[in-house]
Structure formats: structure tokens, C-alpha cells
Amino acid sequence: MPLTLHNQHACFGGNVGYYSHPSNVCNCEMRFAVFVPPQAETGPVPVLFYLSGLTCTEDNFTSKAGAQRYAAEHGLMLVASDTSPRGEDVPDEADAWDFGTGAGFYVDATVAPWSTHYNMYSYVVNELPELIAAEFAVRRDRMGILGHSMGGHGALVCGLRNPDLFKSISAFAPIAAPSQCPWGQKAFSGYLGSDPAAWQQYDATELVKQHARTDRTILIDQGTADTFLAQNQLLPDVFAAACKAAGQPLILRMQPEYDHGYFFISSFMADHLRHHADVLTKG
């Protein structure tokens, strides 16, 4: 598959590269960023996929999260995908920041016109990992996933549905019960139709209730000063209750005074990289 390198920067003994490629899944050009740690010079390394939130691109995490320092320490490759398909032929709702471009919600859309391009679940679970494994020195058996907000929802869903692929899962302020919040209801009804039964496969809380789980502990950090928490968009307590009932190991940390942004994410990134490294680099 053709891969185009747009920019590359030395970083903590490794390098950060920004790439694009033609996606067969999303039927358009897709973009992602990769941090290759120095350990990759001597052999394949574990890889951690990051899913960003609403309105973001592959650059938000790459330039703001401060993750490369810790990834270099642990020998982890980082891959940050874009949040939706983009381009002149890709449909959008120009007046909606939480639906359409920048808001793919990590589902495979079934409703026209979105179903032609908005297949972010299959992109994250199938096409992107296969591309990374083909083009970079990675351990295919040592992959993890984390994300923020909408991307935290994506990380939980992709990880819970594919525990053999993603060995470790974590999230910052995830949309943890999307069928029960305005953001999720808007996205799901637009991409998947009006039947809530079709939404359950993309709802982490519902997946846990249906016994989709991993034996590994999921780590979630949530800021108590997060305005979206107060607006009942995130619902971590609902997800935690489902995990407790189902026996899904979970660490939910409520972080006093932290909000929803990258100052919050960067403050606890070291813990999340350590959480993944403990699974992906041991043994």
C-alpha cells in the first residue's frame, strides 16, 4: 500500500513522522502520525495506538501529550490516527462540530451517505494495524490502545471487542456510555440509524454487560473539573458499575481539579504509558 511521508522530526532518540495513505476501508486518503522509538533500530517493538477526540487530527496527541519521552523510555511505538475521513468527496455537516468531519466516532456507518467513507472502526481494528505491521518494525503480538474523549470511547470499544489484538487498554475522560449521552445518541442515530439495538456493539458499557471483556485491567483517568462530565456526556460511573457487575477489572481514577484538555492528559501520560508497557514489554 503506498505510504507518503510528509514530515519527519528527531525526537527523544527516535523520530516522529506524519504520513498519509489511500484507505480501502474509508475510500479516501487517511492520515496518521508515528513515533518510532530508538529501540526499533535493533528490532521490532510493541506498538500503542492512540485515538483522539472530537475535532482533533493526528497532530493533537503527537504535539501536545508529551508521550514520546515515556514511549522512548519503554520502547513503545506510538501511532496516532486521524479522527475521521476527510476530503472533497467525503460528506460533512458543516454546522456540526460533533458530527461528520473530525467526529467519526470509531464506528462503521450503515446509513447513507456516511457508510461510504465513515468506517473508522474497521480502519482502527484492521487496516491501520496491518499497514503499521507491514511498514514498521513492530511486534504484531504486542499491540495496545488508548484514547481521549470520543477516542477514549473508541479505545474501550476496539479493545473490548478485540482483546486478542489489543492486549492493553486505557482512556482519558472517555465517552463511556454513548447510548445514554447526547454526543453518542447524535452520532449513533446519524451513522447507524434510529434503532438503539444497533448501537450496542459500539457502546463500551453495553459491551461489558454482554460480557465482552478483557482479563487485563483497564485504566481510566477522569478530571473532576471536566465540564463535559458535569454535562453527563462522559458517564464514567455508569461504565464502572457495569464493569463491577461483570467482573471486568477497572481502575477509575477521579483527578481533582483537572479539566478535559491536554494539560490534563499530559499530567498523567506517564502513568498510562507505564500501564501499557507493563503488559506489552514484559515477557
Describe this structure in words.
- The protein has 283 residues and is of the alpha/beta class.
- The chain has nine helices and nine strands.
- Strands 1-2-3-5-4-6-7-8-9 form a nine-stranded mixed β-sheet, sandwiched between helices.
- A hairpin with a 2-residue loop joins strand 1 and strand 2 (14-23).
- The radius of gyration is 17 Å and the shape is globular.
- The two termini are 32 Å apart.
- The mean pLDDT is 97.
Please render the helix and strand layout as text.
Elements (H helix, E strand, L loop, with lengths): L3 E8 L2 E10 L4 E9 L8 E7 L6 H7 L3 H7 L2 E5 L38 H16 L2 E11 L1 H12 L4 E7 L9 H11 L11 H6 L8 E6 L3 H4 L5 H11 L3 E6 L6 H19 L3
List SSEs in N-to-C order: EEEEHHEHEHEHHEHHEH
Low-confidence stretches: none
The CA-CA distance between the termini, in Å, is 32 Å
Please report which band the strand proportion falls in: under 5%, 5-15%, 15-25%, 25-35%, 35-45% or over 45%.
Answer: 15-25%
Shape descriptor: globular
Essential attributes:
nine-stranded mixed beta sheet, 9 strands, globular, 283 residues, single chain, 24% strand, alpha/beta, 33% helix, 9 helices
Please summarize what this structure is.
Helix content is 33%, strand content 24%. With 283 residues, the chain is an alpha/beta fold.
